[in-house]
Design a protein that fits this description.
The structure is a single chain. By secondary structure, this protein is an alpha+beta fold. The strands form six sheets. Strands 1, 2, 3, 6, 12 and 13 form a six-stranded mixed sheet that branches. The longest helix has 22 residues. About 5% of the residues have low confidence. InterPro entries: ATPase_NBD (IPR043129), Hsp_70_fam (IPR013126).
């Protein structure tokens, strides 16, 4: 039997585009209840909120050494910006999709940047760094968080023999991207023979098969039950970077049969964020926004945070109005560039001129 089958615990690292975390299941408990899964729900944001995941952001110092990850990286970098000491530091956010975009460029033959160990990616200030180091240090942080938290609970595991590590990846990723993640995990200290790469929607499908809420047509209440043999279901995994779509049918022996090849694209939450940035460029002017972003990076970071918070609170009601506040420095920049006394009056005049 392979070593994975003898592992005492399975730890799944959810390395997301916008947020990351981990969950784990003990072998002895899993044999009795497949849904007995634990997760770290103690990530603390700068405003005191406790969340089940932490932002996928990582900070390196001037010597390109790992410094902070998640909420701590956000807070540290923001302080560096406010103190005007961020020069030389490297701050990466939402970098996971660089692998997908790299593959797109290869297919389009626009440039040669194959996903290899030598791939370089740029930080928020446009400074390059080894992608393998950035991904590996992120995975290492999440791995160490699990080991440290379990030690606090009085548990101690040999990470090379007792733990079966699972790293999730989008279903639409290519073999190159998956191999890159495996190399990053290896560099993070995870033994290759104790590592499994799992498609994100497939992991969700397996959980749905074990436990799901089915609402029968015409019924007023939902019943909690497992899928029966022959039933088909679709998993729509809307993440921060990608949207993955998969469909399955439950077989008589309980296994899942894939009905269609996984499909999807780069249409996750970051796509919405990019559209929001495009809107701001149109509203304030591309040149003004570009200059403002360079001159006030800490304020741009705050704008991004506020939009992220609003996204989480938006509901399906078309009657609701969403209000987002902006730093006064942005309006001041606009008024100086446009030589006007009021942002509101300038926008009204522009609208009148378009009529």
């Amino acid at each position: 039997m392979e070593k994975k089958g003898d592992a005492l615990v399975v730890v799944a690292i959810d390395f997301g585009t916008t947020y990351s975390g981990y969950a784990y299941s003990f072998r002895a408990e899993y044999e009795k209840d497949h849904t007995k899964v634990y997760s770290n729900s103690d990530w603390r944001s700068g405003d005191g909120l406790t969340t089940t995941k932490t932002p996928t952001v990582i900070l390196f110092n001037e010597d390109k050494q790992f410094c902070k990850f998640g909420y701590e990286a956000e807070a540290k970098y923001n302080t560096l910006l406010e103190d005007e000491k961020a020069e030389g530091w490297r701050y990466f956010r939402r970098f996971k999709m660089r692998l997908f975009r790299g593959e797109e460029k290869i297919l389009e033959r626009t440039r040669v940047d194959k996903i290899t160990k030598n791939l370089m990616i740029e930080d928020e200030q446009g400074k390059p760094m080894s992608a393998l180091v950035v991904f590996a240090e992120s995975i290492k942080y999440l791995k160490n968080e699990f080991l440290q938290n379990t030690q606090v609970q009085g548990l101690k595991f040999d990470p090379n023999n007792d733990i079966h590590w699972v790293l999730t990846v989008p279903a639409i990723w290519t073999d190159r991207a998956k191999q890159f993640m495996r190399e990053a995990a290896k560099q993070a200290g995870i033994p290759d023979d104790m590592l499994t790469l799992a498609y994100e929607p497939e992991a969700a499908a397996l959980y749905c098969k074990e436990l799901t809420v089915q609402k029968k047509e015409g019924a007023e209440s939902s019943s909690l039950s497992s899928f029966e043999p022959g039933q088909q279901f679709l998993v729509l995994d809307c993440g921060g970077g990608t949207v993955d779509v998969t469909a399955y049918q439950v077989q008589n022996d309980g296994d899942l049969r894939e009905l269609q090849r996984p499909t999807g694209g780069p249409w996750g939450g970051t796509y919405v964020d990019n559209q929001y940035t495009t809107f701001l460029k149109e509203l304030f002017g591309a040149d003004i926004w570009s200059e403002y972003s360079k001159e006030n990076p800490e304020d741009v970071l705050e704008i991004q945070r506020r939009f992220e918070a609003k996204k989480k609170s938006v509901n399906a009601s078309a009657d609701d109005q969403t209000t987002i506040s902006f730093p006064a420095s942005l309006f001041a920049k606009y008024q100086i560039a446009k030589k006007c006394s009021s942002f509101e009056e300038s926008i009204k005049n522009q609208n009148l001129q378009k009529r």
